[in-house]
Amino acid sequence: MKTETIKKGGKYEPGNFTLKAKRSSAGLGLYTMDPIKKGDCVIEYVGPVVPKEEWDTINSLYLFEVTKKKTINGAVRSNTARYINHSCKPNCEIDIRKERVFIMAKRNIKAGEELSYDYDREYFDEYIKPKGCKCGAEKHLYNTPKKVTPAKKKVTKTTKGKKPKTKKGAR
Ligand SMILES: [Zn+2]
């Protein structure tokens, strides 16, 4: 799981943190064994680029729309970042740089903490809300009953949102 770096020693070079996938409230989650400082690059979200012809047919919960023209499928083993769960009060955030997806620390994170970021409303409404969010935040995001008119937006079977993420077996 070597991630190529954008620039050695630069802001977007993932730190050498020990990250472990472990059971969490929402199935598996990714935990850091090391403290991480606010602004640090934690890890890159990686995966093969999905050819445009497959955008509407591929079925993966890990699709990540990097740009309007580029979607990657993070369902590969090498993509450790796929274990990071959604949180309504996340400690990480997504930063897209040069068509690559980086997960940055939004605040200082202590050793042992579970990593999380906000998957955005589109993913939340489709995959998280039906089961209920298990992130543990006092207040969950997107809970305003916003009526989504499915016909309005061309939503395909895939998670074309800006969100990757899993959550399949979460119960
Ligand atoms: Zn939540």
- Please give the largest β-sheet: 3 strands, antiparallel
What is the CATH class name? Mainly Beta
What is the H/E string?
EEEEEEEEEH
- The helix/strand class is mainly beta
Task: Give Rg in angstroms.
Answer: 16 Å
Strand portion = 15-25%
Which strand order spans the largest sheet, edge to edge or round the barrel?
3-8-7
The overall strand count is: 9
CATH topology: Beta-clip-like
Described by its quaternary structure, the protein is: single chain
Helix share of residues? under 10%
CATH architecture descriptor text? Beta Complex
Rounded average pLDDT: 85
- Spatial separation of the terminal alpha carbons: 29 Å
The total domain count is 1
How would you sum up the global shape?
A: globular
3D architecture notes:
With 171 residues, the protein is mainly beta. The chain has a single domain (1-166), classed as Beta-clip-like. Helix content is 5%, strand content 25%. It contains one helix and nine strands. It has one helix at residues 121-128; strands at residues 19-24, 27-32, 41-45, 63-67, 70-73, 85-86, 92-97, 100-105, 116-117. It has a three-stranded antiparallel β-sheet with strand order 3-8-7, with no helix packed on it. Strands 1-2 form a two-stranded antiparallel sheet. Strands 4-5 form a two-stranded antiparallel sheet. Strand 1 and strand 2 form a beta hairpin. The chain is globular, with a radius of gyration of 16 Å. Zinc ion (ZN) binds at residues 88, 133, 135, 137, 140.
